[in-house]
Amino acid sequence: MTHQLHHVFAAAVVALTTSSMINPAMAQDPLAKPQATDFIELFEKLSGKHAGFRKAHARGVCATGTFSPEVSEAFRGAPLLNSGELPVTLRFSLGGGNPHSDERIAGARGVGLQIKLPDGRIHNFTGNNFPVFAGKDPATFFGFLSTLLPDDNGQRDPAKTGAFIQQHPSVQAHVAWQASAKPAASYANTEFFGIHTFYYDKTNAQRTKFRWQLTPTLPVEILDETQLEGKPADFLADRLTAQLSEGDVSFVLQAVVGEPQDPDIDPSIQWPKDRPRVALGKITLQDAGDEACVPINFDPNVMSAGFKASADPVLQMRSPAYAVSFAKRLSNQ
Fold it and tell me: What is the gyration radius of the CA atoms in the chain, in angstroms?
């Protein structure tokens, strides 16, 4: 086990063993402050327990490739962009904790990617095909998901979910996106949004405020009902492999640069579309379908020198939640 993996696993075990039960306050008030283990147990209630799999975005495919950086004034001095071509590992996935999810159904598509620098440090990115999160903070997101739990008879209550959405405006933009979403034609034809805010501290002490975005060089494509006819429930991995054999599969990693008035702690709000974009580099896929992602925890708070996470509470919750999921997965729970 590498030093980095050992460190992550140790942190994961601590996170897993320090709290083995749902926070008692959550049973009384779903908007009480949830802990990482509360989220993991809620995901398992919603999707079932699947030992050895990620507790969110369980179904996916791994890919490897290279990151060819571009130097820009906004990110001057960043080792990530000044170390030449770097290896990258990506994992594309479906939302939810069921590793057998039907890929023909519209919904969340995610990506985690890890770039390795020559000094051994890593930089993680995570994103989804939706531009806004379902809640301004962990409590709101937890409360929203809790309304989706079935009752003792196995029935969900749409009225309960609808009432929660009405009462919590920060959920509404994501719900609207979900209502109009169509199934992705391929991971290689999907745009992924980094919904959290980060900062880069330049050498002159000026900070660049940004959210990242991954844009495919192939056209963005979705599928209608006619195009879905005859497709198997697990077509996305095979489609990606086929595209790699046909030609170039690549993405442009961009930074969307924010203005002072753009919120940095609320991922449920999308920044205006006219914000400037800075190309950080090109990611070119070389292979797909191997096991390179198995030992990786794509914690987005793990970054290379110069980059810092914002105080976004959803972003901050990801580290302990990912650690708990990681520990459970490696211990086949």
Answer: 20
Task: Respond yes or no: is residue 57 known to be catalytic.
Answer: yes
| pTM over 0.85, yes/no | yes
| Separation CA 77–CA 241 (nearest Å) | 36
Could you give the 3-state DSSP secondary structure of residue 158? helix
Q: Which amino acid is at 256?
A: V
Q: Which of 3, 57, 100, 123 is catalytic?
A: 57
Give residue 30's domain range. Answer: 3-330
Q: What is the CATH number of the domain that holds 305?
A: 2.40.180.10
138 three-state secondary structure: helix
| Domain count across the chain | 1
Buried-exposed string 286-307: b where 16+ CB fall within 10 A, e elsewhere:
eebeeebbebbbbbbbbbbebb
Residues near 267 by beta carbon (within 8 Å), at least 6 away in sequence: 132, 133, 136, 195, 196, 197, 312, 314, 315
* Digit-coded pLDDT (tens) for 250-287: 999 999 999 999 999 999 999 999 999 999 999 999 99
